[in-house]
Amino acid sequence: VYLVESGGGLVQPGGSLRLSCAASGFTFDSHAMSWVRQAPGKGLEWVSSITWNGGKSYYAESMEGRFTISRDNAKNTLFLQMNGLKFEDTAVYYCNIGAYWGQGIQVTVSS
To answer: What gap in Å lies between CA 106 and CA 56, rounded to an integer?
Structure first.
């Protein structure tokens, strides 16, 4: 299983970023996928999950209405559109399926 995140970076408060996770080594379109983040000095925090076909998505309360998870099963890719970013969204974001994790991508929200 390989999960490779991209799309992170530095953004001002209120800005947007779109994270991508390229997946390989498993049957992507048969599995739910998740995004998890880890802020500096803190533990892992679940962000969002999406069902195998994209039919249902779920969000942590603090991300509801600002983040949108989606997937393209034809391209084996998971996305996280992040709008209205806040200082507290600064974290390393990970793509996750079960016991498998990507290497993580840094998102920094700073003025």
So the answer is: 26
Retrieve residue 3's tokens: 């999960």
For residue range 27-71, list pLDDT tens digits in order: 999 999 999 999 999 999 999 999 999 999 999 999 999 999 999
pLDDT score for 110: 97
Residue owning tokens 């001002």: 12
* pLDDT-based confidence at residue 18 (cuts at 50, 70, 90): very high
**What single string gives the DSSP state of each residue in the chain?**
-EEEEE--EEE-TT--EEEEEEEESS-GGGS-EEEEEE-TTS-EEEEEEE-TTSS-EEE-TTTTTTEEEEEETTTTEEEEEE-S--GGG-EEEEEEETTEE---EEEEE--
Identify any residues that bridge with 20 across adjacent strands, giving them in sequence order.
6, 79
Nearest alpha carbon to residue 71 among 98, 47, 51? 51
